[in-house]
Amino acid sequence: MVNDEDAGFTLPWGASGFFHRKDGPLPETDRRAFRTALHAAARAAGGKVGELEEQAYPRTFHTATVIVGTGQSVVLCHAHHPWIAFAQERREWYSEEFLAPPPWARTFADLGFDVLDRAQLTLPLPDVDTSVITKAEWRAVRSYGITTLGGVLFNAWD
After folding, report:
1. How far is it, in rounded angstroms, from Cα 97 to Cα 89?
2. What is the pLDDT along the chain (158 residues), one digit of tens a residue?
3. DSSP single-letter state for residue 125
4. Cα(152)–Cα(104) distance, rounded to whole angstroms?
5. Which among 27, 81, 116, 131 is least buried, having the fewest CB atoms inside 10 angstroms?
């Protein structure tokens, strides 16, 4: 979709993790701010932070867990934009495997992050303003069979 004012989400530059050197480096989500928010969220949940794995190429996101009792929540933080999402399990990439944010996710929003819900993340790409997506990014989208906003945001394309 190109520049649709009725789109449910507008992709900014760097959302897919692709970039060209001539365009300069991608923006970066403040890792320290993410860790701070993660620990605050875990406290709000009455739990603790489990594993934290920082983004590594080609993945576009950091992954962490918050452990509450005998359960855990997987927290995804986009490496280039301050977006938070939740998933059932750790994976290298996601398409539709997102969960609704738990009540304590509000802590991330209070600390400057945008918490994306399952409805947003599973938006079909025709409902997203993809006007900034380049031809190379569209090739990756088609090659990997990506059909949702979350698939574009939380990927490990090479």
Report:
1. 8
2. 333 344 579 999 889 998 777 878 899 999 999 999 999 999 999 999 999 999 999 999 999 999 999 999 999 999 999 999 999 999 999 989 999 999 999 999 999 999 999 999 999 999 999 999 989 899 989 999 999 999 999 999 87
3. G
4. 25
5. 131
Secondary structure, 3-state, 14-61: CCCCCCCHHHCCCCCCCHHHHHHHHHHHHHHHCCEEEEEECCCCCCCE
Q: Residue 135 CB: number of other CB atoms within 10 A?
A: 6
Q: Which residue has the tokens 């739990």?
A: 47
Q: Give the other-Cβ count within 10 Å of 57's Cβ.
A: 9
Beta bridge partners of 53: 63
Q: What is the pTM of this model?
A: 0.92
Residues 10 and 69: their CA atoms lie apart, in Å, by 37
User: Is 54 within 8 Å of 29 (Cβ atoms)?
Assistant: no
Q: How far is CA 44 from CA 40, 47, 49, in A?
A: 6, 8, 11
CA-wise closest residue to 158 among 144, 130, 97: 144
